[in-house]
Design brief:
Blueprint: H1 2-9, E1 18-21, H2 22-30, E2 43-58, H3 67-76, E3 82-85, H4 91-103, E4 108-111, H5 115-124, E5 129-133, H6 134-142, E6 147-151, E7 177-185, H7 190-206, H8 208-216, E8 220-221, H9 226-247
Parallel strand pairs: 3-4, 3-5
Antiparallel strand pairs: 1-7, 2-5, 2-6, 2-7, 2-8
Length: about 250
């Protein structure tokens, strides 16, 4: 949240821009008892640059070939199935909580310090399942070290085209994705925000190098208008706040 604090204090002239993910910009403040900033009211949203879904993956030893089989296994042993994340309150944790409540199962959250430790735990069988980026999931799936059962979001991932969405698998409502967006300091003139949005969207649509980097990482180009981005921020902020409360996550 250091970046947010810096941009909040910057002159609103269009020369200082914040590039942030929903993990740092929306979720992190919600985990604080005293919020350091309002991710919606304290900034001028410019555009969502890109987003990617999370993959639900399991250790290959787990005898589940699809989401329903995984749910059936979890229901037979309530509280015994463990799902890992990169930390309490992370988007990978909240995705697991969304899945837990949508599927009506009792699974146990195990937080790890970083993606490397989490991947090691899954491969070693210390946890049965986790949500992770599609970019990190694909190499493990290709190597036979993990099995992807579904992805979050509304559409399938180009990196894992044969893997259904959770909605397709019969579990709607698990909409946890990761996005990266651009923000200007509060009070930046609308004309400057509009110009920044236009130039960013132009780069997203026309710059082959930018599009290649996005595609290689399983990220979909978005480039929406500022108003649409702001509205989505408000909806998502409420959704994450509700899930944090439902999951009983203690505020810091």
């Amino acid at each position: 949240m250091i970046g947010e604090s810096f941009v909040m204090r910057a002159k609103p002239d269009g020369l200082t821009i914040l590039i942030a993910s929903n993990s740092s910009h929306l979720i992190a403040p919600l985990l604080q008892a005293k919020r350091p900033f309002d991710p919606v009211a304290d900034f001028e949203p410019i555009t969502m640059l890109g987003s990617y879904p999370l993959a639900l993956k399991v250790n290959p030893a787990v005898p589940a070939r699809n989401v329903q089989e995984l749910i059936d296994l979890a229901r037979k042993t309530p509280g015994k199935f463990n799902f890992g994340s990169v930390g309490t309150g992370s988007v990978t944790h909240l995705a697991g909580e969304q899945f837990k409540h949508a599927a009506g199962i009792d699974i146990t959250h195990v937080p790890y310090k970083g993606t490397a430790a989490l991947a090691t735990a899954l491969i070693a069988g210390q946890i049965e399942m986790q949500f992770d980026s599609v970019g990190s999931t694909k190499p493990l799936v290709d190597a036979g070290r993990a099995r992807a059962l579904a992805v979050t979001g509304d559409t399938r991932s180009a990196l894992l085209p044969d893997v259904p969405t959770l909605a397709e698998a019969g579990i709607p409502g698990v909409n946890a994705i990761v996005w990266v967006g651009a923000f200007a300091p509060k009070g930046t003139p609308p004309s400057i925000v509009a110009k920044l949005q236009q130039e960013m969207v132009k780069a997203l649509r026309e710059d082959a190098d930018v599009r290649r980097v996005f595609a290689d990482n399983g990220m979909d180009v978005v480039g929406n208008d500022s108003r649409t981005f702001a509205q989505s921020l408000q909806r998502e902020q409420k959704g994450w706040a509700d899930m944090i409360g439902t999951a009983g996550i203690d505020l810091q």
